[in-house]
Amino acid sequence: xxxxxxxxxxxxxxxxxxxxxxxxxxxxxxxxxxxxxxxxxxxxxxxxxxxxxxxxxxxxxxxxxxxxxxxxxxxxxxxxxxxxxxxxxxxxxxxxxxxxxxxxxxxxxxxxxxxxxxxxxxxxxxxxxxxxxxxxxxxxxxxxxxxxxxxxxxxxxxxxxxxxxxxxxxxxxxxxxxxxxxxxxxxxxxxxxxxxxxxxxxxxxxxxxxxxxxxxxxxxxxxxxxxxxxxxxxxxxxxxxxxxxxxxxxxxxxxxxxxxxxxxxxxxxxxxxxxxxxxxxxxxxxxxxxxxxxxxxxxxxxxxxxxxxxxxxxxxxxxxxxxxxxxxxxxxxxxxxxxxxxxxxxxxxxxxxxxxxxxxxx
Length: 362
What we know:
The chain has helices at about 10-20, 25-30, 40-50, 55-65, 70-105, 115-120, 140-150, 160-165, 195-200, 200-205, 215-230, 235-245, 250-260, 265-275, 285-290, 295-305, 310-325, 330-350; strands at about 110, 130-135, 155, 175-180, 185-190.
């Protein structure tokens, strides 16, 4: 996320406002940190980088308006207003998507996005998303594609490609398709598999393939998603801590679930970062001492995640390589390696370029 040895005043204030939003600091405890001068441009850039602009704006405008410069507050308002409008549009889109998928009897779940904001913050608009992520089962790819077209959304994939991915979803690395609509800024990403949910898919199958997360599985999914991307944005950590607090989830239950899935390290990383970046202790001190040994490995992943000069295919493989550190079972690691490279090779050989789709809307 950032170098702990080079903390700027803007980073300190960001941390303070996150702690305030999570109820970890009182207003009076926050005031001394607001006395130090802030670079407004750098602060706003930092908020946008970590997708925390809406959260910080809501906290500032409701509780610290008298202590923040009018100029900075107006800049934040100017940035926040279109974000809020876009989220309202995205919420209406999510309702429409849910309706058409329900009509087709397609099991689905919304990943993050407006649904997570409602769970964590209710009607307060505290987080924002650029697109709508919907997870379905591979068997429903064609039906979901038909349902989304009823809403005038166009796909980057042809019907022939969709049929190909439905039949060979196990063997290809393609995991989603993007949809867009004329006049709508936000897009829809239809996922039929995600690397994060593959770790907990066994529990879904036991429920008759109904796509439902328990509260503990939801926390585990958010941990896996953030860890896969190298914990690059603080919003992901704030989401997890807020979910633990809102649902009153026992972290030991999450750790037990992770142990059953052989991915205990990913929960340990979350607890370590919550203590380092947010000053929130979620586990006993003896466990925290043990998981601090993973700090070097974590910093390596953060560095790779921040690189933008890598081909997406190789960046995905690198991310999966580091993701193998999540597994606490050697057998699980070996099986994942086989899946990663076998899937990549078969996708490149059999797919014959079908994963590289020419976008007709350009």
